[in-house]
TrEMBL record:
<keyword id="KW-0460">Magnesium</keyword>
<dbReference type="GO" id="GO:0009063">
    <property type="term" value="P:amino acid catabolic process"/>
</dbReference>
<dbReference type="InterPro" id="IPR023592">
    <property type="entry name" value="Galactonate_deHydtase"/>
</dbReference>
<dbReference type="InterPro" id="IPR013341">
    <property type="entry name" value="Mandelate_racemase_N_dom"/>
</dbReference>
<feature type="domain" description="Mandelate racemase/muconate lactonizing enzyme C-terminal">
    <location>
        <begin position="93"/>
        <end position="198"/>
    </location>
</feature>
<dbReference type="Pfam" id="PF02746">
    <property type="entry name" value="MR_MLE_N"/>
</dbReference>
<keyword id="KW-0456">Lyase</keyword>
<dbReference type="GO" id="GO:0034194">
    <property type="term" value="P:D-galactonate catabolic process"/>
</dbReference>
<dbReference type="InterPro" id="IPR029017">
    <property type="entry name" value="Enolase-like_N"/>
</dbReference>
<dbReference type="InterPro" id="IPR034593">
    <property type="entry name" value="DgoD-like"/>
</dbReference>
<dbReference type="InterPro" id="IPR029065">
    <property type="entry name" value="Enolase_C-like"/>
</dbReference>
<dbReference type="GO" id="GO:0008869">
    <property type="term" value="F:galactonate dehydratase activity"/>
</dbReference>
<protein>
    <submittedName>
        <fullName>Galactonate dehydratase</fullName>
        <ecNumber>4.2.1.6</ecNumber>
    </submittedName>
</protein>
<dbReference type="GO" id="GO:0046872">
    <property type="term" value="F:metal ion binding"/>
</dbReference>
<dbReference type="Pfam" id="PF13378">
    <property type="entry name" value="MR_MLE_C"/>
</dbReference>
<dbReference type="InterPro" id="IPR018110">
    <property type="entry name" value="Mandel_Rmase/mucon_lact_enz_CS"/>
</dbReference>
<dbReference type="InterPro" id="IPR036849">
    <property type="entry name" value="Enolase-like_C_sf"/>
</dbReference>
Length: 310
């Protein structure tokens, strides 16, 4: 569901259920098209999140009926493992450094961090200096032993984004995510032309038609569709193919739990241009309970050397 809009998405699922109940669940493509196209209004975070949840359930049903993993049903493996990176909570450098140390002990060497404290706006030179200082402290603490991307959640004003990205270059972040909002995507080609740091975006784009515009415009090097918000496995596989045609890599967005992560991994294992998989298990949810308490095959989520395997 959309974070903060769970009941709204639930209502959309019930509305779609009026059509779905009694249909053949094996006709995933047909059902998807009807869910998307039958209404006068299409797209957006609510409808596409509802479709995403249903789509993942349909693929799960098909896999269980045929006793086959979803990646096998989608044509088979294109790789035997995918590099994982972990979100690190915390807004202060000391907290981030402590979080990285803990995650390194369980095998991670690649991370994603908040780009600014308390997710504040970066709209002046002082805010730029503060963000750069945070990154400098983290790089100083670990040197080149780790890689990290920086997520600004679209909170950088367009004029300051040029300044900020230039100041970050000496610290060699793996990528800069959402320096500006998705609705300001026209800035991505301009920003990309002024830096060698890859720019990443996609979590707030909800269909291949949203991604079509940014791919045509250029500027984004790493596409990050969220399988729980962008129409599920069916739609995100198409988005991955579109990105490949533009020589853009794929790193599915996944700040959620094991079911969402499993869906992402199936896309990673069949998409040629997939390079990284985010995971945030244990960070934001399931407090007070065992992390995988509702998962039957817990071993599927074990990592080996910082990689997930099929």
């Amino acid at each position: 569901v959309i974070e903060g809009r769970a009941r709204t998405v639930e209502a959309a699922v019930h509305e779609l259920g009026d059509y779905l109940i009694g249909q053949d669940p094996s006709r995933i493509n047909d059902l998807w098209q009807v869910m998307y196209r039958a209404g006068f209004y299409r797209g957006g975070p609510i409808l596409m999140s509802a479709i995403a949840g249903i789509d993942q359930a349909l693929w799960d049903i098909k896999g269980k009926v045929l006793n086959s993993p979803v990646w096998q049903l989608m044509g088979g493996l294109v790789r035997d493992k995918i590099k994982a990176y972990s979100w690190v909570g915390g807004d202060r450098p000391a907290n981030v450094i402590d979080g990285i140390k803990i995650l390194r002990e369980i095998g991670f060497d690649t991370f994603k961090l908040n780009g600014c404290e308390e997710l504040g706006l970066i709209d002046n030179s002082r805010a730029v200096d503060a963000a750069v200082n945070t990154v400098a402290q983290i790089r100083e603490a670990f040197g080149n032993q780790i890689e990290f991307g920086l997520d600004f959640h679209g909170r950088v004003s367009a004029p300051m984004a040029k300044v900020l990205i230039k100041e970050l270059e000496p610290y060699r972040p793996l990528f800069i995510e959402e320096p500006v909002l998705a609705e300001q995507a026209e800035y991505y080609p301009k920003l990309a032309a002024q830096t060698h740091i890859p720019l990443a975006a996609g979590e707030r784009m909800f269909s291949r038609f949203d991604f079509k515009r940014v791919l045509e415009a250029g500027g984004i090097s790493i596409l990050q569709p969220d399988l729980s918000h962008a129409g599920g496995i069916t739609e995100c596989y198409k988005i991955a193919g579109m990105a490949e045609a533009y020589d853009v890599t794929l790193a599915p967005h996944c700040p959620l739990g094991p079911i969402a992560l499993a869906a992402c991994l199936h896309i990673d294992f069949v998409s040629y241009n997939a390079v990284l998989q985010e995971q945030s298990m244990g960070i934001h949810y399931n407090k007070g309970a065992e992390l995988l308490d509702f998962v039957k095959n817990k071993e599927d989520f074990s990592m080996v050397g910082g990689f997930f395997k099929p």
